[in-house]
Amino acid sequence: MTLLRQPDIGYIPTPHNVTRSLLDFAKITPSDILYDLGSGDGRILIEAAKQWETRGVGIDIDPKRIQQAQENAETAGVDNLLEFRQEDLFKSDFREATVVFIYLLPHLNLRLRSRLQMQLKSGSRIISKDFDMGDWPPLHTLSLPAKTEDDEEVTLYYWQV
Ligand SMILES: C[S@@+](CC[C@H](N)C(=O)[O-])C[C@H]1O[C@@H](n2cnc3c(N)ncnc32)[C@H](O)[C@@H]1O
User: Fold this and answer.
1) pLDDT at 109
2) Domain containing 67 — which CATH number?
3) Is 6 part of any domain?
4) Does residue 105 lie within any of the structural domains?
5) With a 6 A CB cut-off, is 13 part of the ligand 1 pocket?
């Protein structure tokens, strides 16, 4: 696998202590199909698969991240539930998703917004870490205060299509 093009944002993982809160916030169930657009080391999908046996698809442009996520899923014993695709998230097909997670940047959220609205089925949820979608108001938000001095406050946004 080679790098398709430079990533639009580098790899900054969601802290492990936030992962479970965001999955609860998204109201994940075993029947969901969860997509992480820019999936990094796969930790969010892996946690959902471990907790609820939720199927998931991770999309990342960086082949190193895809390989790492695949290895992590195998180590966690949930690789049968997950698929990791090396793709550009701005060209990918995520129509089957019932929940999409993004941890990108404000301008990338805005660029993705119309694709999300066009592709996703009515009722699908979108969760964004830290950044909103301009004038598309979220249905819910959740602030997670910093737990230690090294932590940062996290804000989660929830939309329903
Ligand atoms: C901030 S990290 C988030 C990682 C993971 N979602 C998490 O929360 O732990 C953003 C990820 O997006 C990936 N990325 C950047 N531009 C991309 C693009 N155009 N298509 C797919 N992935 C991309 C990066 O390689 C990186 O792994």
Assistant:
1) 98
2) 3.40.50.150
3) no
4) yes
5) yes
pTM score, whole prediction: 0.96
pLDDT in tens, 9-62: 999 999 998 999 999 999 999 999 999 999 999 999 999 999 999 999 999 999
In a domain, 3, yes or no: no
Candidate of 4, 5, 9, 128 to mutate for ligand 1, largest count of ligand atoms within 8 Å of Cβ: 9
With H, G, I as helix, E, B as strand and everything else as coil, classify residue 156: strand
Number of helices (H), then strands (E), belonging to the chain: the values are 4, 7
Q: Cα separations (Å) of 14 from 39, 100, 113, 129, 151?
A: 10, 15, 21, 8, 11
Atom 11 of ligand 1: nearest residue by CA position? 38
| 116 part of a folded domain | yes
Are the CB atoms for 156 and 129 separated by under 8 Å? Answer: yes
Helix (H) / strand (E) element for 85: namely: strand 82-86
Residue 128 sits in which domain range?
16-160
Q: Which two tokens stand for residue 86?
A: 């090396």
Domain count along the chain: 1
